[in-house]
Fold:
Amino acid sequence: MLAHPDLYRGVADAVPGGDARLLAVRCADCGRVAFPRQHYGCEACGGTRSEDVELDARGTLLSFATVHLHQSKSIAAPFVIGEIGLDGGPTLRITLVEPDDRGLRIGQRVRGALHPAPGGEGALELRFTLESAR
Amino acid sequence: MKPLSMFRPAYVVGIGLHPYQRMSETPYPVLGLAAVRAALQDAGIAWSAVESVFHGTALLGMASTRVMLRHLGGTGISMQQVENASASGSTAFRLAALEVATGVSDVSLALGVDKPGPRIVGGAQTGLRNVESGRVVPFTHFALLAQRYLDRHGGSPEDFARVAVKNHGNGAKNPFAQRQQARTLEEVLNDPPISGAFTRLQCCPVGEGAAAVIVASEDGIARLGIDRRRCVRVLSSVQQTEIAYAESSNFDAELTRQTTARALAEAGVAPGALDVVELHDAFTVEEIFYLEAMGIAKPGDAPRMLRAGAFDVGGEVAVSPSGGLLAMGHPIGPTGVGQIAEIARQLRGEAGARQQPNARLGLAHMVGIGAVCVVHVLGEPSAC
Structure:
C-alpha cells in the first residue's frame, strides 16, 4: 500500500526499498512538465491538451533543512526535508532518508525509493536519499 | 491597466490599532471596534462620515463584518469582507484607496481584524496532495530558501539572526507590538531551533489584533475639516500574482521584485529614496530577500548593510520600524493595514522613540500564499 498512490507508483511491486516513479503531466502545447499531476490546464500557457507522463525519482539536491518541530502532533520531528530538482524538470520538496543534514551539500545527486511511512500502518512513502548512500 | 496616479488623490487621514497579542478569550468585536474608534478619533471624524468599509480577515469566517461594526451605529453603508491570505489587510487598503481615488466614495475605511482559527486553504481543495505528507510548512519553505542563499552568497545563520535583533529592538518601542522585548544576537541564536537556520525568535508570532486606516479624498478632507498636515498621500498601489517562474527560482522574491518595481515606477520613486519600509518579514531571511529584490540592496549585500546599521531607525532606510511581522506580530488580517498605519505615523513624524528622522517616503509590502503580492508607496503630508 502506498501513502500517496495519486502521486507516485512502485516500479514492479511496491515493496520497502523499491523504486518508484512520479506521476506527472506534460502540456502538449508548450511542453511544461508539472508535478503533482492536475488536468485543469497548463500553468504556463493555459493549454488544455496534456499527456500523463512518469518521471524517474532522480535529481539534484537544491536545498535542505532539518526540521526540529512540527505543529501537528502526528508528525514526529526532527526530520530532514530536501528540495530536489528532478531530472525530468519539476522541483519538489520531500522527506530525506538521512536523519540529519551532516554530509548534505547542495548539488549532490539524490534518488527516491519507497520506505515505511511513520505511523502509516504498513504504508510506503517515497523518500529521497543521496545516491552515494545506496 | 491604469496606475492609481491617473485618478484623483487619496490620503490616509486616520489610523487606529488594537495591540497585537497572543490568542485570548477577547471577542473579535472588542479588537476591531477599538481600532476603528481610534482611527475615527485620529481623523477627527464621526462614524457617520464613513461611506464604505473593506475588512481584511482570513480566519474569522463569513459574515463577520457587520455583526461587529453594527455597534458603531448602523448607517447602511457598503461593507466588504476581503480575503487574500497574509495580504488580506493590504488588499483591503488597496480597495479603499481605489474606491476613494476613483470617486466612488470620499471616505472609506480599511480594516483588518483576526483571531487564530481553523484554516481551509485553497490548494488542498483543488485536490493537491503533498508528497512530503504535510511536513513542509511555511518556516521550512523559507528555511530551504535560506540555505540556498547561504550556498550562493556565503555568510552564516548570524546574518539572518541580526534581522530578528533589529526588529525586536524596534518592537520594544511599539506599544502595539506583540513582542516588546529587545533581544541580543546570542538570545536569538540560542533560542529553540525550529527549522534549518531559524530559531523561534526568527519566526513571527501569529496572534490576534486589529488595525484600521481611514482613506479620504480632497473633497472629503475639506468637507470634514480634517487636518491636512497629518494627511499622508497614497502614491501607488500595485497587486500582482505569481506566474510560472523557472523551476527552483525564489518565487516570493521574484514576485516581490516585479510588484515593487511597478509600484515604485508608478509613484515616481527610486528604491534609494525610500525612508521607511514595512515588509513581510514573517521569517528573518525574508527581509534580506525582499530588500535585495526591491533594489534597496544589491544581490548578496543586504547582510553587510544590515550589520552596518543601514536598516536601523536612523540608518539609510528604516526597515520594519514597527517591529515588523517578527516583533509587532502577524495576526493575518490586520497585518497589512497595520503596516500602513506605521508608515503614516512615520511620515507624520509621530512615531516617537522609533521615529525615522525626516521620513518623507514609505513603502509597504506583503506577500500571501497562493501567491499574491501587494505593494503601496506613501508620501509625507507636504506631498499632498
